[in-house]
Amino acid sequence: MDDYKNRSYGAVPIGMKGKVGIVVIDYQLAFTDTQYPLGGAPLVMRGLENTSRLLKVAREHNIPIASCFTAYKSERDMPHWKITAVREQFRLDHPSSALDPKIYDSSYDVVVCKTGPSIFFQTSVVPYFIKEGVETVIITGCNTSGCIRASTIDSFQWGFRTIVPEDCVGDIEEGPHRDNLRDVGRRYADISTADEVINYIKNQKA
Q1: Structural domains in the chain plus CATH codes
Q2: pLDDT for 206 beyond 90
Q3: SS3 of residue 114 by DSSP
Q4: Quick one: which of 78, 114, 134, 170 could link to 47 by a disulfide (CB 3.0–4.6 Å)?
Q5: From CA 197, how far away is CA 194, in angstroms rounded?
Q6: pLDDT in the model for residue 204
Q7: Does residue 44 contact residue 31 with C-beta atoms inside 8 Å?
Q8: What is the overall mean pLDDT for the chain?
Q9: What local confidence, expressed as pLDDT, does residue 142 receive?
């Protein structure tokens, strides 16, 4: 028995409509390079590969892409993170802050440095998407239970149709990954796949 379902949670699908924009959250070397404490989690690496595949198609179809990394000047301008690796390495001058080349095209992508969990918090991403006429936001990146969840909620709060391709996001452990997708899927977003988003983009009228 699913009491959430019985109480109508998740009953109304959002669907993709109009122009899509893609956010790519924190696929920086800190999370994708195994030399760093947070790097190389299997679900994150799977998400990186599928996001790379999605972005290739998106760029071919002139889809707006906003990527972000998380970094600070010093520990003094950080929020009160409880993660040692973030406190010690997430600095603007640290090599782990660089975006992974598998998902980043410097000639195409808009890039912001974020200082909180959400890519939308105090950044220029919302004005950029409004200017581009975006109606549906595709959420990719890591980690599902942290920055993906926060960005999904903010996308919802800004009034965008919000889609999270399950295979384009990742986390340290599978349990939090699944639990958070299930929960945002009940309330704020549709859970989809890279292939479904790719098909929508390819079939969208110019």
Answers
A1: 18-203 (3.40.50.850)
A2: no
A3: strand
A4: 170
A5: 5
A6: 86
A7: yes
A8: 97
A9: 98
For residue range 116-167, list pLDDT tens digits in order: 999 999 999 999 999 999 999 999 999 999 999 999 999 999 999 999 999 9
Judged against a pLDDT cut of 70, whether residue 39 lies above it is answered with yes
DSSP assigned state of 99:
B
Does residue 49 contact residue 102 with C-beta atoms inside 8 Å?
Answer: yes
> How far is the C-alpha of 57 from the C-alpha of 52, rounded, in Å?
9
Cβ–Cβ under 8 Å, residues 85 and 42: no
Q: Which residues contact 93 (CB under 8 A, 6 or more apart)?
A: none
Q: At 138, is the secondary structure helix, strand, or coil?
A: strand
**What is the DSSP secondary structure assignment for residue 176, as one 8-state letter?**
H
Radius of gyration of the chain (CA): 16
User: Taking CA 75 as the corner, what is the angle to CA 71 and CA 80, rounded to the nearest 5 degrees?
Assistant: 90
Handedness of CA 113, 55, 185, 31 (dihedral sign): negative
Is-contact 21 132, C-beta < 8 A?
Answer: yes
Instruction: Find out whether 43 and 170 touch, Cβ atoms under 8 Å.
Output: yes
Report the distance separating Cα 51 and Cα 115, nearest Å. Answer: 22
Count of residues making up the chain: 206
